[in-house]
Amino acid sequence: MEKRDVAILGVGMTKFGYHPDKSLAELFAEAFFEAFEESNIELKDIEALYFGNFVGEMTDGSANLGGFVADEIGLKGIPARRYEAACASSSVAFREAYYAIATGIYDCVVVGGSERLYNAGTAIGTRALATAVDGVYEITAGLTFPGVFALAARLYSKKYEIPLDKLREKMAMVSIKNHKYGAINPKSQFYNKFGDLKVEDVLNSKMICSPLTLFDCCPMTDGASAVILTTADKAEDLIDTPVYVLGTGQSSAGALFRQKEDMIRAIPRKISSEMAYKEAGLTPKDIDFVEIHDCFTIAEIIASEAMGFFEYGKGADAVAEGVTSIDGDLPINPDGGLIGKGHPVGATGTAQIYTVAKILRNEYKYNPVKDAEIGMTDTLGGDFGTLVNIILGIHRRR
Amino acid sequence: MFKEFFDALLEGKVLGIKCKDCNSYSILKSTCDNCGSRNVEKVELSNKGIITTFTTTYVAPAGYDKECPYVVAFVELEEGCWLVGRLDIDAKLADEMGQDLIGKEVEIYGKEFPNEPYYPDKKRRVVPMFKLVS
Q1: Cα A212 to chain center, whole Å?
Q2: Which one of A171, A177, A383, B18 has the fewest CB atoms closer than 10 angstroms to its CB?
């Protein structure tokens, strides 16, 4: 089937952090209105809502959110539903929305997400996040998300014969980089905070799941993000700088313990990113910068390898050598990533898209990526249960 | 099916499946972990294994906080499949031993812990426990 080219009309994002005074729907409305304002469309042009949310039941006692969210933003009666795929919720929603337009089902839709984990508190938040691990075998052992990546860090150290002390120092450099970029992003949870961390600060912060300390982990965050999508043809009529969707990929996996050693190779991510490269007609070398799912420092390293940017076992060196810094060959997480910017789970995927679009449109003045034409997102749901990659560019697919 | 796994575990047995198509073993499940085949037979696996990785958890989810700190580990059984559970040693000792714990042999048994509201089995919560073989 011939697919239509799809483009982003507008993007919006709330400040990430603590939002005790706004509901999931109210937070989403704030992000949506920002996206809507720059889209040059009327409300009636939007035909459907694709809404990402992970644990509304546990944090806000609220499910069936599609209709409530659509109503909050003034979209009465349109098809509206919630997508849940843990941290990849809004990336899965984005991919479904993209295909709906590409295949001609709709001409204009809104996609995004909203989450309130900070407001839920650490104990409920940790339990809510842990619903994304295997619900029988892994949860009974008390496996948490920092736990998942702590297991991965120890295995990575063993498998690639990097002494754990050395690996932890390199992991700390991911935290230092992402906090540095998060501290200059006004929408970050940690705006103006932790911008000048030292390796010792990361190593000596509170131990969460050995060997991961607090600064190896992203925070619990409240926030929302929204993207308005339409056909490339319509976008070119409506706005000056459409950002085109060049390729998308998605993959899945079962329980982490059943993935065995593959957990440090993130095979579903390899499948997903290769799907996206193929659809875009590109290779990893063509990507100018990436928003990677750095829920933990080691997660960014593993992801950068699985996506084909570095050889397996070499991602940690790439960070230490500055390759992934803003002036390196492949800037990773110029907006601070999940670690520096925050991680409102169901909103994270479309928040990554927000940043990529802003950078490609030359509107991200805090930490610009010079001459960037192609950017990519990487969103991980659970312990590799869901993987989504999206490639965006300022020119149509060739 | 998971009830059967934990019933057996409380008797010191680890239940799994052997795939008749690719000959690999998995912890009890409807299909083979390796190839997805339904052509499997239920088997009793070895109750011994090797620690492949572990972590000491200092921040626990609601419902597990009274057990904290605890050590979660992955163990590779003799048949090649992996199992997740808890290491039956003091959390402090686990962190002192660090990476040296990886590769150590353990024996597997089941232990009941207090239930929590979201666990799929509303009657009990059994945890696979790994005891170091000295």
Answers
A1: 21
A2: B18
Tell me the sheet residues that pair with A228: A10, A110
Of A3, A12, A114, A5, give the one whose Cα is nearest residue A357. Answer: A12
Tell me the residue type at A390. I
Would you say A244 and A392 are in contact if contact means Cβ atoms under 8 Å apart? Answer: yes
- What is the crossing angle of helices A145-159 and A122-130, to 10°? 60
Cβ-based burial of A379 (10 A; exposed 0-12, middle 13-18, buried ≥19)? buried
Q: What is the pLDDT of residue A236?
A: 98
CB A101 within 8 A of CB A233: no
Phi first, then psi, for residue A45 (nearest 5°) are -75, -20
End-to-end CA separation in angstroms for chain B: 33
A19 has which bridge partners? none
- Contact (CB<8Å) A122/B125: no
pLDDT over 90 at A74, yes or no: yes
State whether CATH 2.40.50.840 applies to domain B2-132.
yes
Contact (Cβ atoms closer than 8 angstroms) between residue A120 and residue B59: no
**pLDDT digit string, tens, across residues A161-187:** 999 999 999 999 999 999 999 999 999
The secondary structure of residue A58, as a DSSP letter, is H
Q: Does B9 touch chain A (CB under 8 A)?
A: no
Does an H or E element contain A90, and which? helix A89-102
CB A345 within 8 A of CB A369: no
Q: What is the largest CA-CA distance in chain B?
A: 45
- The answer to whether the Cβ–Cβ distance between A154 and B57 falls below 8 Å is no
Q: For chain A, what is the largest distance between any 2 Cα atoms, rounded to a whole number of angstroms?
A: 59
Which domains does chain A carry?
6-121+220-238 (3.40.47.10)
Average pLDDT taken over every residue of chain B: 96
* Interface size between A and B, measured as CB pairs under 8 A: 120
Test the A interface: residue of B64, B70, B79, B111 with most A CBs within 10 Å = B64
Which residues does residue B126 pair with via DSSP β-bridges, in sequence order? Answer: B112
Token pair 């990929």: residue: A249
Q: Break chain B into its structural domains and give their ranges.
A: 2-132
Angle, to 10 degrees, between the axis of helix A164-182 and the axis of helix A297-306?
Answer: 100
Evaluate if pTM is beyond 0.95. yes
Q: Does B126 touch chain A (CB under 8 A)?
A: yes
- With 0-12 / 13-18 / 19 or more C-beta atoms within 10 angstroms meaning exposed / middle / buried, residue B52 is buried
H or E element at residue A248: strand A243-252
